[in-house]
Amino acid sequence: MKEHALLERTVVVKAFRKSKGTIADGRKGNTGKKGVIYGTDAEGKRVELAVCRGATFRDLSRKLFETGLVPRHVTIKSKGETRF
After folding, report:
1. 38 Cβ neighbours under 8 A, 6+ residues apart
2. Which of 25, 48, 65, 78 holds its CA 20 to 30 A away from the CA of 14?
3. Which residues are CB-contacts of 76 (< 8 A; sequence separation ≥ 6)?
């Protein structure tokens, strides 16, 4: 089995509302996903590298891989943090 280098990056996936308000205000209850890619600097602090949004997790994961900051061999969790 091939071992991959540790990149010290974290992907955080969260749900977000596309609009604020109630259904009476015209919101249809739509939600989406927001993914943030963090890197680690020399001091060990998180540095935001990229932010992507998608209607579904599948859409979001495609956009995260297209940034080039997440290798294809990494499996991204649909909720929470993924470290690689």
Report:
1. 9, 10, 11, 12, 46, 47, 48, 49
2. 25
3. 11, 13, 35, 61, 64, 70, 82
Instruction: Report d(CA 55, CA 29) in Å as an integer.
Output: 12
State how far the alpha carbon of 4 is from the alpha carbons of 10, 32, 64, in Å: 15, 31, 19
46-84 per-position pLDDT tens digit? 999 999 999 889 999 999 999 999 999 999 999 999 998
User: Which pLDDT band holds residue 10 (cuts at 50, 70, 90)?
Assistant: very high
Read off the pTM. Answer: 0.78
Tell me if 30 sits within 8 A of 19, measured CB to CB: yes
Instruction: Kindly state the tokens that stand for 26.
Output: 């015209």
Q: Is the dihedral of CA 4, 64, 50, 55 positive or negative?
A: negative
